[in-house]
Design a protein that fits this description.
With 60 residues, the protein is an alpha+beta fold. Helices cover 27% and strands 20% of the residues. The longest helix is centred in the middle third of the chain and has 16 residues.
Length: 60
């Protein structure tokens, strides 16, 4: 959570090799929504529906 994001966006995705992060604006996104979003993402990753394959890294 951040106080504000570039372009007055509500949510942005930030990716660099080995790390993918969703960043949300406190101005637009309720903390409960963030909690539910995290739960959904964890479930998607656990089920193997989202896999990141960066060069030089092996997927689990």
């Amino acid at each position: 959570m951040r106080d504000s994001l570039p372009g007055d966006r509500a949510v942005i995705a930030v990716e660099r090799e080995g790390c993918f992060t969703w960043v949300a604006s406190r101005k637009y996104v309720d903390p409960k929504a963030v909690e539910e979003f995290r739960d959904q993402l964890r479930q998607i990753v656990r089920q193997g529906m989202w896999v990141q394959n960066w060069p030089g890294r092996r997927s689990a």
